[in-house]
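User: Show me a protein chain along with its predicted structure.
Assistant: Here is one chain, sequence first, then structure tokens.
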Amino acid sequence: MKEEVKCPWCGKVVDTRKVVLQGKFGKIKEWRCEDCDGIIAAYLDEDEAVLERVRTFQS
């Protein structure tokens, strides 16, 4: 499904193109502008919750 957003690079309202890439640390989801090919958003696609790996310290 394509979503119309305003691209911060070219300033036009365009459809986004979703790309899934294999990176060094896992799968990366990227949303790119179809007009200028600029990256609008990129997220690491993880199955496990990120908060489980966050350390908590007690006083």
